């Protein structure tokens, strides 16, 4: 039996929802380990659509335990709202099926404000964040002034912590000509909701150890994608957490030996929301067509996603950095109408061929993709469930990707419905 980490191998929005749904049905425990409510997963189960942002995907299924690890940043009001929303759809959420780490840091209203202020002031240098306060909250965590879930336990403790964090934030706010943040009101608001949050809180590392001893199947559910990783992504156009598979261990408190298989969700083309380098971006009719056929609008911010050809160099880099052994290829059917399809296999940098994404932003913006062109299949693959039923050129496209990125394709998604999937290998048994 294996524990599986699911992560996006590109810039997020690879279509994790459907795969997570399939695997969370087999898992006993589903763990979120990084990010916050900047993520957005849509699950459709028995005709009901659930939009999850912070809650692990296991929550919508009976007899599963959902865990929010210490690596996640939690906006307590957004969490309570999401719980309310999901309960209104008949889902039971209680301290037996939802566990939140006592060590997780909170996103507070001034974090979202700071995110807004910075983005608005940045002009051309803006990152295009989700404006949910994710970055400022992680900054406070690294600055050792975060308010964590456990700090909600006493008023005195909270008062102390608020003094420390607001001293820092108010100095910046004054510098930016903004009003100082009102501590009394925030403290009152936090104390009011504290019991509703604390009832779910536990030392998550200990619970995970128990689950491991009981041989429970654990699914670690990543958010965003590897190219948005704080260390390994297209810095500074990244999110503020580590999104690679190793973050599952840090962000939940389990040893790395607990992770047995890493499934990289990979879109059959490339998309990105927000700013930053995108070597294979198509600012033409083909790009528009991918966006409209692929319904490429963000689930969290409704922003239109930028679209481009499949970048094999980037995905191969993600496979290596994150130790991905299996790939779930998504949205293959979006390519059905194209005469020809391109895969980026190298870059040209100042007349030299390179086989990796350069580290510096300047060169990342300068590189030109070198493509291999494959003939399109010009037939509908929508809803195909068996690999042998794919048109020959579609099979060829999949096998080119598999060979190039050096990871096995374990499933291929051929439509939005849960069953529109070709299942080749089960990551839990692989
Ligand atoms: P932040 O995570 O809100 O700080 O945003 C930083 C960057 O990550 C921006 O480019 C966002 O568009 C991107 N981002 C954050 N969350 C997601 C996601 O769930 N999917 C895709 N992109 C995301």
Would you kindly provide a written description of the structure presented here, covering whatever features stand out?
- The chain is an alpha/beta fold.
- The protein has three domains: 4-101 and 201-261, Adenylosuccinate Synthetase, Chain A, domain 1, CATH 3.40.440; 105-198, Adenylosuccinate Synthetase, subunit A, domain 2, CATH 1.10.300.10; 265-429, Adenylosuccinate Synthetase, Chain A, domain 3, CATH 3.90.170.10.
- Helix content is 32%, strand content 20%.
- It contains twelve helices and 20 strands.
- The strands form five sheets. A ten-stranded mixed sheet has the order 9-7-5-2-10-1-11-15-19-20, sandwiched between helices. Strands 14, 16, 17 and 18 form a four-stranded mixed sheet that branches. Strands 3-4 form a two-stranded antiparallel ribbon.
- A hairpin with a 7-residue loop joins strand 19 (408-413) and strand 20.
- The radius of gyration is 22 Å and the shape is globular.
- It binds inosinic acid.
- Inosinic acid binds at residues 11-13, 38-40, 127-130, 132, 134-135, 223-224, 228, 237, 239-240, 273-274.
- Inosinic acid is lined by residues 11-13, 38-40, 127-130, 132, 134-135, 223-224, 228, 237, 239-240, 273-274.
